[in-house]
Amino acid sequence: MESILTNAFGAFNKYSGWIVWNLFLAFIPLALSFWLFRRTIRRRSALWWLGLIVFIAFLPNAAYLLTDIIHLIQAIRAGYSIWIITLIFIPLHLFAILVGWEAYVISLINQSYYLEQQGAKKFVFASEIMVHALSAIGVYLGRFLRFNSWDFVTQPDVILTSTVNDLTSKKPLLVIVITFIILTIFYWLMKQVTLGVLWRIRSAK
Q: Which of 6, 30, 89, 147 could anchor a disulfide with 103, C-beta 3.0 to 4.6 Å?
């Protein structure tokens, strides 16, 4: 029994240790979205604009969790027992991916709510598309070039150069476009589910 637990703990550290950190990064834009978009704001201060910049910089971290399906595939292929795969890897990874993606969806719903409250409902769709595009670039930079959100502050020149180079290359641009399409479709689907659940909750009160 002890050897099974030790094996399970080692497997978790090797293939699932990213979960806590990545979820933490995903919840930063979610928390900011409530602070930025759900409060009653009379005027947008410099602090608000700074928060918006941080929100945009960290939002791809929530979408990034979709790509962490790679870790689940690696864990399944690693040869662990069916019990460890079924009881640890699959539930934990799917939970992290779903929660992280929901953080992305709710963040954008809050952004859309803010635009509607500001009388800019006609810009909701365009803003969502723009965020998906920026997030697709961010996911690419994080997954393939291994940049982090704080690199926008510590080495913005390197990120800018890498982004420009990749956007002018066919293969990276194709990956970004495919990521953008996936984010757009998945967001639309989960947005309907989320709004539907919220409507049912409000109706039940």
A: 30
